[in-house]
Amino acid sequence: MIGTQPPISWIDNRIPVSCKFNDSYYSIYGGLEETNFVFLSGNNLPGRFNDGFHIAELGFGTGLNMLVSIEAFHKANIKGTLHYTSFEKYPLEKSQAERALKSFPTLNKNFLLDQWSQKTFSVISDRVIATVIIGDARKTLKEWDGKADAWFLDGFSPSKNPELWEPNLLKNVAIKTKKKGTFATYTAAGAVRRNLSDSGFLVEKVAGFGRKRHMCKGTLI
Ligand SMILES: C[S@@+](CC[C@H](N)C(=O)[O-])C[C@H]1O[C@@H](n2cnc3c(N)ncnc32)[C@H](O)[C@@H]1O
Hints:
Number of domains: 1
Largest sheet: 8 strands, mixed
Structural class: alpha/beta
CATH superfamily: Vaccinia Virus protein VP39
Distance between the termini: 34 Å
Strand content: 25-35%
Number of strands: 11
Bound molecules: S-adenosylmethionine
Order of helices and strands: EEEHEHEHHEEHEHEHEE
Helix content: 25-40%
CATH topology: Rossmann fold
């Protein structure tokens, strides 16, 4: 069953916090910088972008990671198409996403907001095919017939949102990863690293973003 949208509170009137999970959607030390540091650099992007490159994400939230990735793809001037697939159980309302994304005035976001939906939807725009699959990722990922070159593992903190870090789900992440594909996540929690390693990734613990001493990243072996 698709979850109903849990209420949101706001830090400084601009950073959304899930009242259900008691955690913010992105770092209070800079959402855009966190995306670049953790998810793009952690997956060796933009350097690996090529035609048909596929990013997949657990936890779509505000769409910030998607928008920053699309911008990086365009800046890299790759001839071809970027695919971005994100899995989300509790879709924000458009007004909530709009309010959060207002903090990032340089990002081109209208194409996403114009097509925002609480149901699974795709946005095809300027060499990008982006799809948001609504439902519990533990179920929808199993049913997904795609494979990613790079994964953004962006659930709320593992202690608050354990369902998005379950061993079986991370096994399916590995199954849905292309040969030599990668993942990156802001957390370096021991259980997450172990489960990713057991799933087939060579996992590295590296310096983290903001106040986080460590994050982790890895390559499918
Ligand atoms: C930290 S936020 C993601 C932030 C997002 N990447 C962004 O750019 O704004 C975590 C997201 O995981 C989603 N989530 C939590 N449990 C889930 C589940 N079982 N399946 C799919 N999504 C889930 C939450 O609703 C939330 O949107």
